[in-house]
Amino acid sequence: MIVLGIETSCDETSAALVEDGRSILSNIVASQVDIHSPYYGVVPEIASRKHVEWIVPVITDAFNAAGVEKEDISAIAVTYKPGLIGSLLVGLSFAKGLAASLNIPYIGVDHIHAHLYAPHLEQDISYPYIGLLVSGGHSLITYVRNFDDFDVLGTTIDDACGEAFDKIAKFYEMGYPGGVVIDRISQKGDPRAFSFPFPSLHKGDHKYDVSYSGLKTAVANQLDKFWNKKYEKSIENIAASFQKTAIDIMVNRVLKAVEDTGLRKIVAGGGVAANSYLRKRLNEESGLEVIFPSSILCTDNAAMVAGLGYHYLLRGNKSDFKMNAEARVPLFRNIYP
Fold this sequence. Notes:
It is built from eleven helices and ten strands. By secondary structure, it is of the alpha/beta class. The strands form two sheets. Strands 3-2-1-4-5 form a five-stranded mixed sheet, with helices on both faces. Helix 4 packs across helix 11 (302-314) and helix 8 packs across helix 9. The protein starts with a strand and ends in a 23-residue tail after the last helix.
């Protein structure tokens, strides 16, 4: 079964053709990074307009790269939640129209589930495991039992990890996107230059949760308070110290979940999963199996949408034309005892 995947949840217009949920025939991603860089963040109206301009050529490129015709596909999978509502509507509307014209089913896919599925495109991964989703919009620690069955153990109580990277990069005018530039600048810095604080979330319902608003305040407005003065107060040292603290906050919560659940396998996804320090930090933990997707599958892409959609369609699920885009989704919490 060849499934066409369509992803337009934020500022990447992506189309992919994936066979049998694993074999990527094509995965085209058109990024709007250069367009949004002057604003140090995504402008929703601009993003949705660019999706309208780009979706036809991107899907055409995906078919050409795969060497298949529209009549060769069995179904369409498309992201319908969560994300920027205008951007989501472009992909969802196109998917509905194309599915109707070809008389084939389509399935709406949750963007969060798709990111957690992305590593499965490259490796055979058995369930269950601790799923870690870290991106500009989400910070989730999950107990994953199957491709559509997981509990949210922990999340952020305020800002996402990737959003914190973007805001600090903007404050110090390092560049955009923040995660990429801070990771690069950090390579030349010393993380011992600043001892930034950790949030105090250790008890009750927050024992797997993270928080980044306090860290952002410390880095942007209280720098001298946490400066180790034997080190230079340089952009490189600020970036390295911030990155270490931001990632350690997340890793500490993940390791707590590993300890409590007994699961020794961690599968990561999302844009921040490409971070070099996160990969190094988790891979250094002895006795754990840690799986990261390749960099192209960390960012928003349609291959993960098509791959996950295949499993829904194989099970007989399909969406009707009444489906609407959803900007947000509720996160049902299940705190492990």
